[in-house]
């Protein structure tokens, strides 16, 4: 009996307006309609709009699922996907492939759960959940393709000489360092880090710089720094991954931060080593003799960019004219239907001519009046101006007439006049 | 701020300003430098810099003899009166009062002034000669319009 009563009470609550206010994320609205809200047409339309928008973004990602492509780091920064279901941004970090992180996120189990929950909550149809995620089979295929691409790329790099700085660091740079450096230095250079200077490990260098490092970088590095605090700070600020410093001395300590956290460059104590000044082992770059003949800064030759500038000059002129045209185009983009457009164009031309020196002394009438719509106006504005001018003229005439009146004279009576004439 | 805005006393100055302000709203305040309401309005015109990209503000001295013809033409009886022009065309604004041809009185806030000028600019760019006032009625100064002293 009691159970039935409880049920009835619950029902009453559902129908009455005593429901708690909830916030609908789709409509961005607070409502107290409870579960009824999702069936209202307003909610349905906003939900469909939201889902179509999301679908369009996902359709951008899907081609990359089929054919993974390598993406340079700078472009990756701009690609981010806002996952509505998980309420978070998926930023493209640490992945060489286009939309790599997005695909991984969409394939994750957590995301799938959230999709289902969202669709249940907002009534989108839980059978549609699959269209908002990446199925496991597809994801595995994508991963395989990525691996294949990676191995291919690695092979290509190993075989041919490439201009890749990372490769230089990894292969040539390391080798040359080992050759030149008599002292035993242990260092580990990771991807994305340019290491210009080296120093002896004799001095205790206490530098603590909290720097993010990627979880994938394992292993210890013993790495002494000297004279590159600025470099370290710059790198810290750049949030570059894979940069760790460790110190030989036990008194020093390093703060390691997990990936993605804030960078706090804090250089505490620093001891220099004078001996290391002499032993800055820099890699020598040899240039071909041809370049030497061509001349350099010391011989006073023209910089190479000027030579190429001559070629570009011919290109520049049409560009300039395009620029000018675009500016003129901008003014023509100003709504031609705007108020006083014709007047404005005419006036602009006049002003330009005046500026150029062809002074068109167009002396405007002193009685020029602007276009004005009177308060009690009926008819066109020209009419109001004309009426005013007409009225003005009348009043002026009236004034002038009054002035040209017979000059005032004292009254002479008839008798006096008669007397005078007699 | 009155001293920072150009004050015009001659008809030809007003004319040339009206003619030379192209593709920008011209805000002409007709008033007296001795009137307190005018001064209050002029103080609001310090937001003239904010609107300088699409508007120019100028003051016209009502006492000057050459300006009298304009007072008649524009039917100015109350001071301060502000008239808006765009490309030498007069812009009207329906602010709920009887007179749409000008703005009579001052503004309560700087932002009100900016909003009004923006509304005028938007309407003008669309080709409308009359726009409606974006301010709520409580912020619009009220006055009674006399028609031929009736």
Could you list the spans of chain B in which at least 5 consecutive residues all have pLDDT below 50?
none
**Structural class, from helix and strand content of chain A?**
mainly alpha
Strand content of chain B: 15-25%
Overall radius of gyration of chain A: 42 Å
* SSE sequence of chain B, one letter per element: EHEHEHEEEHE
Helical element count of chain A? 14
* Average pLDDT over all residues of chain A: 66
Give the CATH architecture of chain B.
3-Layer(aba) Sandwich
Largest sheet of chain A: 2 strands, antiparallel
- Derived from helix and strand composition plus strand pairing, the structural class of chain B reads alpha/beta
Helix content of chain B: 25-40%
How are the elements arranged and paired?
The complex is a heterodimer of chains A (422) and B (150).
Chain A: H1 2-15, E1 22-24, E2 29-31, H2 41-66, H3 73-78, E3 80-83, E4 88-91, H4 100-107, H5 109-122, H6 136-159, H7 165-180, E5 211-212, H8 229-238, E6 256-257, H9 275-278, H10 289-294, H11 304-333, H12 341-356, H13 381-403, H14 414-421
Parallel strand pairs in A: 5-6
Antiparallel strand pairs in A: 1-2, 3-4
Chain B: E1 7-8, H1 11-20, E2 25-31, H2 36-44, E3 55-61, H3 68-74, E4 81-86, E5 89-94, E6 103-104, H4 110-126, E7 130-132
Parallel strand pairs in B: 1-3, 2-3, 5-7
Antiparallel strand pairs in B: 2-4, 4-5, 4-6
Description:
The complex is a heterodimer of chains A (about 425) and B (about 150). Chain A is mostly helical. Chain A has helices at about 1-15, 40-65, 75-80, 100-105, 110-120, 135-160, 165-180, 230-240, 275-280, 290-295, 305-335, 340-355, 380-405, 415-420; strands at about 20-25, 30, 80-85, 90, 210, 255. Chain A has a domain at about 50-155. Helix content of chain A is about 50%, strand content about 5%. In chain A, the strands form three sheets. A two-stranded antiparallel sheet of chain A has the order 1-2. In chain A, strands 3-4 form a two-stranded antiparallel ribbon. The longest helix of chain A has 30 residues, at about 305-335. Chain B is about 30% helix and about 20% strand. Chain B is built from four helices and seven strands, in the order E-H-E-H-E-H-E-E-E-H-E. In chain B, strand 4 (about 80-85) and strand 5 form a beta hairpin. Chain B is globular, with a radius of gyration of 14 Å. Chain B starts with 6 loop residues before the first strand and ends in an 18-residue tail after the last strand. The interface between A and B is medium-sized, with 26 and 34 residues. Chain A: This is TITAN-like protein.
């Amino acid at each position: 009996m009691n159970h039935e009563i409880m049920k009835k009470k619950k029902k009453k609550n559902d129908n009455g307006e005593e429901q708690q206010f909830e916030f609908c994320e789709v409509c961005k609205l607070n409502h107290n309609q409870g579960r009824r809200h999702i069936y209202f047409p307003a909610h349905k339309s906003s939900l469909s709009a939201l889902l179509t928008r999301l679908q369009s973004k996902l359709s951008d990602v899907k081609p990359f699922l089929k054919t993974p492509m390598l993406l340079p780091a700078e472009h990756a920064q701009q690609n981010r996907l806002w996952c509505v279901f998980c309420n978070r941004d998926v930023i493209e970090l640490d992945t060489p492939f286009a939309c790599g992180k997005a695909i991984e996120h969409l394939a994750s189990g957590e995301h799938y759960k959230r999709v289902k929950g969202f669709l249940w909550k907002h009534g989108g149809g839980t059978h549609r959940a699959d269209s908002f995620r990446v199925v496991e089979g597809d994801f595995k295929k994508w991963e395989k393709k990525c691996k294949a691409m990676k191995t291919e790329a690695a092979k290509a790099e190993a075989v041919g000489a490439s201009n890749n700085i990372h490769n230089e660091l990894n292969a040539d740079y390391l080798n040359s360092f080992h050759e030149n450096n008599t002292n035993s230095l242990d260092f580990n250079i990771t991807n994305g880090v340019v290491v210009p200077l080296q120093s002896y490990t004799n001095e205790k260098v206490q530098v603590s710089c909290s720097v993010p490092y990627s979880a994938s970088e394992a292993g210890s590095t013993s790495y002494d720094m000297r004279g590159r605090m600025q470099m370290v700070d710059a790198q810290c600020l750049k949030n570059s991954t894979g940069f760790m410093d460790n110190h030989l001395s036990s008194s020093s300590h390093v703060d390691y931060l997990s990936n993605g956290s804030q960078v706090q460059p804090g250089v505490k104590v620093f001891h220099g080593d004078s001996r290391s000044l002499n032993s800055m082992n820099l890699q020598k770059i040899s240039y071909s003799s041809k370049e030497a003949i061509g001349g350099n800064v010391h011989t006073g030759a023209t910089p190479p960019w000027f030579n190429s500038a001559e070629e570009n000059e011919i290109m520049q002129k049409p560009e300039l004219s395009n620029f000018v045209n675009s500016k003129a185009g901008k003014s023509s983009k100003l709504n031609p239907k705007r108020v006083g457009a014709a007047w404005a164009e005419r006036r602009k031309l006049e002003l330009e001519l005046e500026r150029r020196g062809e002074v068109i002394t167009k002396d405007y009438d002193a009685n020029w009046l602007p276009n004005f719509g009177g308060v009690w106006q009926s008819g066109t504005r020209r009419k109001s101006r004309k009426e005013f001018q007409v009225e003005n003229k009348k009043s002026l005439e009236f004034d002038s007439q009054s002035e040209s009146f017979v000059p005032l004279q004292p009254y002479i009576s008839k008798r006096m006049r008669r007397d005078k004439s007699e | 701020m009155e001293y920072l805005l150009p004050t015009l006393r001659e008809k030809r100055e007003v004319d040339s300003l009206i003619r030379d302000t192209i593709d920008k709203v011209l805000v002409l305040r007709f008033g007296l430098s001795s009137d307190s309401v005018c001064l209050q309005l002029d103080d609001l015109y310090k937001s003239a810099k904010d609107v300088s990209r699409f508007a120019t503000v100028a003051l016209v001295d009502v006492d000057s003899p050459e300006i009298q013809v304009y007072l008649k033409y524009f039917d100015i009886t109350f001071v301060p009166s502000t008239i808006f022009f765009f490309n030498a065309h007069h812009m009207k604004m329906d602010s709920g009062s009887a007179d749409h041809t000008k703005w009579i009185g001052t503004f309560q806030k700087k932002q009100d002034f900016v909003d009004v000028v923006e509304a005028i600019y938007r309407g003008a760019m669309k080709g409308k000669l009359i726009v409606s006032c974006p301010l709520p009625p409580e912020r619009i100064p009220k006055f009674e319009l006399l028609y031929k002293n009736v």
